[in-house]
Design goal:
54% helix, single chain, Ybab, Chain: A, three-stranded antiparallel beta sheet
Length: 99
């Protein structure tokens, strides 16, 4: 294989990787906890926080609500990581740490 063919193959792989990353970046992931849903984009920006607990939240529940927010956001982030691993699977660990 000549150098031009290797470069062309590398450029194609780079385009494919960027396309897959863009697809994941533009996807919404919904992390859930008992009281909260967190909508996070694939690029890990929080789009929306939804309080799904019915009724009012008193002062005692404030700390629980804060914990539920963390759980929901972390759940969405874990989903993003799994989706990125799935999308980048064909490229193996060659791209580890690039995204």
């Amino acid at each position: 294989m000549n150098m031009q063919a290797i470069m062309a193959q590398a450029q194609k792989m780079q385009r494919d990787v960027m396309k897959k990353k863009e697809e994941v970046d533009n996807k919404e992931f919904i992390g859930k906890s008992e009281w909260v849903e967190a909508v996070v984009m694939g690029n890990k920006t929080v789009k929306e926080i939804r309080i799904i607990k019915e009724g009012t939240i008193d002062d005692e529940d404030r700390e629980v609500l804060q914990d539920m927010l963390v759980i929901a956001i972390n759940d969405a982030m874990a989903q993003i990581d799994k989706e990125m691993e799935k999308a980048m699977g064909p490229y193996g660990n060659a791209l580890n740490g690039l995204f």
